[in-house]
Design goal:
By secondary structure, the chain is α+β, with helices and mostly antiparallel strands. 34% of the residues lie in helices and 29% in strands. It contains 14 helices and 24 strands. Strand 23 (412-417) and strand 24 form a beta hairpin. The radius of gyration is 26 Å and the shape is globular. It binds glycyl-adenosine-5'-phosphate (GAP). Glycyl-adenosine-5'-phosphate binds next to strand 11, strand 14, strand 17 and helix 10.
Length: 440
């Protein structure tokens, strides 16, 4: 983890939030490469979950939501973690995070102190915001604790403004905020994070709804595997009854085998009619669906897939990180991020063999300009070729292209593959086709 955290900082993937002023715990800023990675993850998700489907539409709701929404959804009452406090140093922990508690006790025992804990009390995770211009008359709103409710409160709006028929889904990507008691493990548990979610509305039928549930579990697991996470590092885990969130009838997590143990990457939840029924009850508005085929009115049930963009980014990075012991021809070992080409921040790097030969630089710039409108491309002319390869491997760039003296005569370039380190000569006129095929 230390190596990943250091690579992320050094190469511009992820920086600590508000670092200039000493930091703000549980917040992270994504640098040039991190924001490209996140953008690619979100784009792939949107492609699979919305664009390639006829039964799913997207939406984008406000982050700030009325406190009434959260009363209805049950979050003001039940969105809590059990909090305990160390009576010696007053540090607070989640009572269910055994490893962190053990670690804390160890720290004190080194000083020959025995920790006593307060009784667990419920700590609400919603982040409050005070809105309004007049002091004393400010209204409490909440930054959304899950992006889900923005979709459910718009169920009727989406239905009335589209021609969707059940079963259908509404997808959304956006920020969520939780007052986590112990943010940690780098971006894994943050206060501010991004979610990508599907709310899939189905008929209230036990058997059929479970078929959809299994279907979406499969879609989500395949999505991670198809984007290169090794299958031995992924598994499903069912939530025990006492673990279920207040809205869930059933829940399975997709877990990743992280350096700090198997951890939740995404949740697939059967939310039943919880959300729409509660919003109907609290708003007094009809949230039912009229099925014109069977001439029946009902409150649909919801199957939800809910993944974290930041957790996905972190686990994609961890899974792709390799330190190669075998040596390149010049004797230097390398660090390589074997990111799936669809996720790699840059797809191709272009270099002139020598930065001080204007004819090479001119030709290389021409190649670079022709590629950068097609693929995320980067220019590099620092140091020697070996160092440039090393630098691109470390950030996961799948291909490096070198323009040398032969290029000027034969109009071809050297293309070097990140994973195999093999080099091929490719005609400049063939380059876009060649890369297009390889990057799919
Ligand atoms: N709408 C359902 C829901 O929010 P969740 O299991 O609480 O379910 C879904 O969260 C996903 O959001 C998690 O699987 C995780 O990827 C991400 N997530 C949740 N809390 C997070 C946090 N504090 N920091 C980073 N990601 C988080």
């Amino acid at each position: 983890m230390e190596k990943i955290v250091s690579l992320c900082k050094r190469r511009g993937f992820i920086y600590p939030g508000s670092e200039l002023y000493g930091g703000l715990r549980g917040t992270w800023d994504y640098g040039p490469l991190g924001s490209e990675l996140k953008f690619n993850i979100k784009q792939e998700w949107w492609k699979t979950m919305v664009k390639e489907r006829d039964d799913v539409v997207g939406m984008s709701a406000a982050i700030l939501m009325s406190s009434k929404v959260w009363e209805a959804s049950g979050h003001t009452q039940s969105f809590t973690d059990p909090l305990i406090e160390c009576k010696i140093c007053h540090q607070r922990f989640r009572a269910d995070q055994e490893k962190e508690i053990e670690e804390h006790e160890k720290q004190h025992s080194k000083k020959k102190e025995k920790v006593e804990w307060t009784e667990p009390k419920k700590f609400n995770l919603l982040v409050e915001a005070k809105l309004g211009v007049i002091e004393g008359e400010k209204n409490t709103a909440y930054l959304r604790g899950e992006i889900t409710q923005g979709v459910h409160v718009n169920f009727k709006n989406v239905l009335n403004s589209s021609r969707l028929k059940i079963p259908f889904g509404v997808a959304q990507i956006g920020k969520a905020f939780r007052n986590e008691i112990t943010p940690g493990n780098f971006t894994f548990r943050s206060i501010e994070f991004e979610q990508m979610e599907l709310q899939y509305y189905v008929k209230p039928d036990k058997e059929k709804s479970m078929e959809y549930y299994e279907f979406w579990k499969g879609v989500r697991m395949d999505w991670y595997k198809n984007l290169g996470i090794r299958k031995e590092n992924l598994r499903f885990r069912e939530h025990a009854k006492d673990e279920l969130a207040h809205y869930a009838k059933a829940a399975w997590d997709i877990e990743y085998n992280a350096p700090f143990g198997w951890q939740e990457l995404e949740g697939v939840h059967h939310r039943g009619d919880w959300d729409l029924s509660r919003h109907q009850q609290y708003s007094g508005q009809d949230m039912s669906y009229f099925d014109s085929e069977i001439k029946e009115k009902f409150i649909p049930w919801v199957i939800e897939t809910s993944g974290g963009v930041d957790r996905a980014a972190l686990f994609f990075l961890i899974d792709a990180y390799f330190e190669e012991k075998d040596r390149e021809k010049n004797g230097a070992g390398r660090i390589v991020l074997r990111l799936h080409p669809k996720l790699a921040p840059y797809k191709v790097a272009v270099f002139p063999l020598l930065a001080n030969k204007p004819e090479l630089v001119k030709k290389a710039k021409e190649v670079y300009d022709s590629l950068k409108t097609e693929f995320a491309a980067v220019w590099d002319e620092r140091g020697n070729i070996g160092k440039r390869y090393f630098s691109q491997d470390e950030i996961g760039t799948p291909f490096c292209i070198t323009i040398d003296f032969d290029t000027l005569e034969k109009n071809d370039v050297t293309v070097r593959d990140r994973d195999t380190m093999k080099q091929e000569r490719i005609k400049i006129t063939e380059l876009i086709n060649y890369l297009d095929k390889k990057l799919k």
